[in-house]
Predict the structure.
Amino acid sequence: MITSASQCPCGSQRQYGQCCEPLITNQQPAATAELLMRSRYSAHVVASQEPCAIDYLMNTWATEQRQHIDRAAVEDWAVNSQWLGLTVVSHTPKGDNASVEFAVSYRTADGSPHIHRELSQFRRDQGRWYFVEGEEPKGQVPGRNSPCPCGSGKKYKRCCGA
């Protein structure tokens, strides 16, 4: 169980209550696209214990994207996965637009390990950041002897690549 005093799931090394929790509970908006992306990851992690987490995910999609999102599928993925870690590869702000490349490690309900890599696009509207869309980055598969993107400290071949 993650509490306000727990280390934030986003990997910031800050307490959840001082990092992503105020964003997920709508006490404050994300100051950058990277912070929005980190809080969206944390919302997946806490979805089973925070009723507002799925609302947060839905509300932080760009308005034009929300109608295409299957809320039940988002909730199922969030609640039925074991979230293992987030690695931010890059954050590239460009005025009211930004991109964030990241890797998320998780296990599905059947225990299968997965790494989701994404290059996400964000847009700031009226002072708030929104997730617009994401795509798989080109050529970013870690080598067998590379550190695992889940942050375990193990080699990829002995962790999520096993």
Remarks:
- The chain has a mean pLDDT of 90.
